[in-house]
Structures are given as C-alpha cells and as structure tokens.
Design brief:
Elements: H1 2-11, H2 14-34, H3 37-40, H4 67-92, H5 107-115, H6 122-132, H7 136-149, H8 154-179, H9 183-186, H10 203-221, H11 232-251, H12 255-280, H13 284-316, H14 318-321, H15 326-358, H16 377-386, H17 392-395
Helix pairs in contact: 4-8, 4-10, 8-10, 8-12, 10-11, 10-12, 11-15, 12-13, 13-15
Length: 399
C-alpha cells in the first residue's frame, strides 16, 4: 500500500507533470503536421469542406481502422477455405506432397543450420565433418534433407494459389459492378470533376476499398507462413505501396481513380493464380494456355493502360483543375513505384512466355525446389538452370 502511495505521489510530481505536458505538446505538433491540409488537399480546400453535409457523405480517415479486423476476418475465411474446400479439391485431383526423408538428429549441424547458413560452403562442410566425425557425403545429405523439411509442399502451394484466385475473381467482379455505370470509367477527365468535393461516397466504393485493403494487409500479416518466394522483398514493397496508395487515396478523396486502379490490377491476377492452380494439378496444357492469356492481359493492363491512361489521368488532368500540392506529387510517385515493379515482373514474364511457347514449363521458380539426396552441387545447379524461369506463372505475382 505504501509502495502504491509512493508511486502515485511520484507520478503526480511537478517534474512528471511537465514531462507529460511536453510529450503531449510534441504529439499535438506531430499530429498537426501529419494532418496539415496542404499535405493532403489543394490550396483552396480544407478538412471542413469534406465534412458530411447536404446529404453528401465523404470518406474519413477513421474508417481505415476497419481494415485490420477485415484482414483478420479474411485470414479466418482463408483458413476455412483452404481446409474445407481447397484441400478436398487437392485430394480429388490427386495433388500429393512429395515424401521427404527426415534429417538425422545432430545438434552440431542443427546449430549451424539455424544460426549460420542453410547452405554451407565446402570449407565449412569439411570443418563440420571433423566436429561430427561424419563423412562429407553424409553431411551434405543432412543439409539437403534439412532444407527440404522447411520447404512448402505442393498442396500448400495449391491451397494458397486457390485462395488468391478466388479472392481476385470476386474482387474483380465487385469492381466491375461498382464501376460499370460510372461516367468516369469511360471518360477519365470525369475522375476530377468537382474534386475534392464530389458527389456522396457510394457504399460500393466503401466496401470495395475495405475488402482490398483488408486483403493486402492480410497478405502482409501472412508473409511469414506463406510460401517463401525469391521475390519476397518485391512483394513486401508492393503490398506496402498498395496499402499506402489506398490509404492516401481514401483520405484525400481520390476514390474514383483508386477503384479503377484496383480493378485493372485484379483482372490479370485471376489468370495468374488460376494458371498456378492448374499447374500444380499437372494440367500443364491448360496452365500454359491460361498463362499465355495472362501474359497478354498483363502487358496490356500494366504496361499500356496503367501508365498511359491511369498515370496520365493522375499526372496531367489534376493541374487543369487545381494547383499541384504535396499529395498530388506523392500519389503519382507511389504510382510510378508500382510501375517500376510492373516493369520488373514484365521482364520475367516475357522470358517465361518465350519458354512457355518453345519448351515445357513446370514448377514455380520463385520457390526453392526440393533436392534429391543423390544431387551433387553440379547436378543441382544444372537441374535448377534447366528449370530456370519455369514458374513465371508464380514468379510474377501479377502486381
């Protein structure tokens, strides 16, 4: 009791009171800068202009908090989908994980594997042979088996691709329903008509944004247990850039162009994930046919429509309506960042498209391939180089 009294007395001391007041002022200053109108809105517009009035409802920053519970709900739906729908389909199609041999128990090798490297150098292999009294061949086999234990199985890849394919399909259908009768879909100058005090926000726009933001947030939350890809960093950059764009466009009332950008992206993603689904099911001809269509659609939407229609719309038309401001430049820079990622994936897809036409494509090049115990380093490198590019349907994640 005396300790509690001392704590309360200390907490209310003049020094702590001044410290709390100073921290409060700092937070207010940071908040003032963060929500400074000139960052988000044109010079002649204030936040008060975007308050609900005369039957008009505008997007509010506080509504973005709903993206987190939406992401958690989508993760739950994904779990149920993969367990009770995708897994039974995998059983029907005969999709099985490869039988893997378990690595022997060895604390020395396990410690090296977890703390230093998954692929030891030749010098380290010789050093480990001395520590374990194992022959070199046995140590190499142990590391191959241990790496295989951490690689995702074919069924996991199939379930993940199935979930994304289904989501993108319904998201694209929702986007079409939200946009098909809107004049700004057919005349992009209408995107900025009356900006930012435009007509009331529509329920379809709200739910479309919420589901898309929840989905990309769920992808960020699940990256640690999803199939590990070699373009992991590019995926993280893409998801963060997408969430930043959606959040900014929501707060700044860039909702019209935001919905169009989402629909354009979702259109090709359906085919990408669908091609992967059929590829894992070993329907290679179907997968290759879908991949060809995906390639054409990807190039059309990401290298033509996105830069020459949508970025042109956000870069050229706004200055005709209002003087450029920070948000105008920020939004366009983020779109250009997405376009750079599009170019990166387009280069990969082009190479894979060539191989799809002139050779057989199998596997998923973004994921680690399982190694056989009989594979020597030269054989393994030859195997991987022979399969190089085989997973463009998986490697280019469609964004």
């Amino acid at each position: 009791m005396n300790c509690m009294s001392d704590w309360l007395h200390t907490d209310k001391s003049p020094e702590n009171t001044l410290q709390w007041a100073h921290q409060s002022r700092m937070l207010q200053t940071v908040g003032g800068w963060l929500w400074w109108e000139r960052l988000w809105l044109p010079g002649n517009v204030s936040w008060s202009d975007l308050e609900d009035s005369e039957g008009r409802v505008y997007a509010k920053a506080s509504q973005l908090y709903a993206a987190l519970p939406c992401a958690l709900c989508l993760l739950l739906v994904r779990f149920l989908f993969e367990r009770y729908l995708a897994t039974p389909v995998a059983n029907v199609w005969g999709i099985r994980d490869r039988v893997r041999l378990t690595a022997e128990q060895n604390p020395i090798l396990e410690n090296y594997f977890c703390r230093q490297a998954r692929v030891p150098s030749q010098a380290d292999v010789r050093s480990l042979c001395k520590k374990t009294s194992w022959p070199e061949r046995r140590v190499q086999v142990w590391f191959r088996r241990r790496r295989n234990q951490e690689r995702p199985g074919l069924r996991k890849r199939f379930c993940e691709a199935s979930w994304r394919c289904v989501f993108y399909f319904f998201a694209f259908v929702g986007g079409v329903l939200a946009l098909y009768d809107k004049p700004w879909l057919y005349n992009l100058k209408e995107v900025w008509e009356g900006f930012p005090k435009q007509v009331s926000m529509l329920p379809s726009q709200y739910w479309y944004y919420l589901l898309e933001m929840g989905f990309y947030l769920s992808l960020l939350l699940s990256l640690s247990f999803d199939v590990k890809r070699k373009d992991f960093k590019e995926q993280v950059i893409h998801h963060i850039a997408t969430l930043t764009l959606l959040s900014f466009s929501w707060i700044s009332n860039y909702i019209r162009i935001g919905t169009i950008v989402m629909a354009v992206h979702d259109s090709a993603d359906i085919l990408l994930e669908g091609a992967k689904v059929f590829n894992y099911a070993k329907w290679h001809k179907t997968a290759n046919a879908i991949f060809v269509v995906f390639t054409v659609l990807f190039m059309l939407t990401r290298l033509v429509i996105f830069p020459f229609w949508l970025i042109h719309c956000t870069w050229v038309y706004p200055p005709e309506k209002f003087p450029p401001f920070f948000g105008y430049y920020f939004f366009n820079v983020m779109l250009l960042l997405l376009q750079i990622l599009h170019l990166y994936w387009a280069a990969l897809i082009s190479r894979m498209f060539y191989k799809c036409i002139f050779s057989k494509l199998e596997g998923d090049d973004r994921s680690d391939e399982e190694e056989d115990d009989s594979d020597s380093p030269k054989e393994r490198n030859h195997k991987l180089s022979h399969m190089n590019g085989s997973g463009a349907r998986g490697r280019a994640n469609g964004h």
